Amino acid sequence: MSFSDAIDDKYRIHAADLDSRTHRLVISNISYQGVEEMRPVLHFEGLTKRLVLTQQQSYDMIRLTHSSIPTEWIGETVLLEPVHVGGDAVIEILRPWANMPRFTRARWVARFTRANNKAAHKAAQGAIAVVLVAVLAAVAWLALQSGDAIRSLLPAWLAW
To answer: Rounded CA gap, 94 and 81, in Å?
Structure first.
């Protein structure tokens, strides 16, 4: 335990502070704390206590926010949920939609992914159509110029 852990312990959020309930909170600021290792500290709107992130919680925040830059986490809404691991109570950080039942969440994610895939597929089809029309227009233009122009573009063994 580092010296700063002993001093700042009363200003930290612990799993016991959450009263066995999930809390929806908005990150209002990020600071850093530590003697040997600097760790991100999340400040929440309306709370005086802060959450000093463990390495796992830092990874969770990166995964949830899609950003490894802690200052970009400001304004994000997260769920803090007390979880018992072995004999210890720890705080798990979740996205607001992550508390849905697993099958509902999976169905929602699948629907969202399908919609994005359909849009990407339509965009790709449109791009292919534009390229094909451009190639056909170029071939038609060459054919109108003269038949010799097309033959000059082909290798000798393909020329007719």
So the answer is: 8
Q: Which fold has domain 3-99?
A: OB fold (Dihydrolipoamide Acetyltransferase, E2P) (2.40.50)
Can you give the pTM of this predicted structure? 0.55
Range of weakest confidence among 4-8, 87-91, 130-134 = 4-8
Structural contact between residues 2 and 35, judged by C-beta atoms closer than 8 angstroms: yes
**Residue with tokens 């919680």, as numbered in its chain:** 57
Q: pLDDT tens-digit profile of 10-54?
A: 788 888 888 888 888 899 999 988 878 888 999 999 888 899 898
Residue type, 23: H
Q: What is the DSSP string of 46-65?
A: T-S-BEE--HHHHHHHHHHH
Choose among 5, 80, 83: nearest CA to 47: 80
Shortest CA distance to 17 belongs to which of 57, 43, 45, 50? 50
